[in-house]
Amino acid sequence: MNTLEKIIKRTPVKTKRRVQRNLAIAERIHQLLQHKGMSQKDLAQKMGKQPSEICKWLTGLHNFEIKTIENIELALEEDIIEVTKSVHIQLPKPDNIKIDEPHLWAVAEKEVKYITGKQTPGKRKK
């Protein structure tokens, strides 16, 4: 086993996953720039950043913050990340809510009280 294989083997799963996602984000940005005929410098100018910062982002090693991704999406006018899983809670009437997860029930119950006016915004509990 060579040195790289040893490093990969002892790297925690969450670290591997984070690196894979950061690489995927960087690749998506590269694709969008190419599709739009833009350079890294163009993106930097559009975002008010230094080209060196964009270059750092696109190495795939940058730990992106959500707000950075949002700003890039706004500059490119395209989504970088697409959320595919979502929870939909329909609240037609408080007595018709059927939620199996206790923590979701607590959240839904608070929202119903707020929506129906049984709790004022100032007194809303977290």
Form type: flat
CATH topology of the largest domain: 434 Repressor (Amino-terminal Domain)
Architecture of the largest domain, CATH level 2? Orthogonal Bundle
Mean pLDDT score: 78
Q: Could you spell the SSE succession in H and E letters?
A: HHHHHH
Count of domains = 2
Indicate the structural class.
mainly alpha
Q: Which spans have pLDDT < 50 for at least 5 consecutive residues?
A: 122-126
The beta-strand count equals: 0
Distance between the termini: 52 Å
Please report which band the strand proportion falls in: under 5%, 5-15%, 15-25%, 25-35%, 35-45% or over 45%.
under 5%
Radius of gyration from CA coordinates: 22 Å
- The number of distinct helices, counting runs of at least 4 residues, comes to 6
What can be said about the biggest beta sheet? none
Name of the CATH class of the largest domain: Mainly Alpha
Helical fraction equals 55-70%
Keywords:
single chain, 126 residues, mainly alpha, 434 Repressor (Amino-terminal Domain), 2 domains, 6 helices, 0% strand, flat, disordered C terminus
Please provide a written account of the structure.
By secondary structure, this protein is an all-alpha fold. The protein folds into two domains: 3-76, 434 Repressor (Amino-terminal Domain) (Orthogonal Bundle), CATH 1.10.260; 94-123, no CATH class. It has six helices and no strands. The protein has helices at 3-10, 13-36, 40-47, 51-57, 66-76, 102-115. The longest helix is centred in the N-terminal third of the chain and has 24 residues, at 13-36.
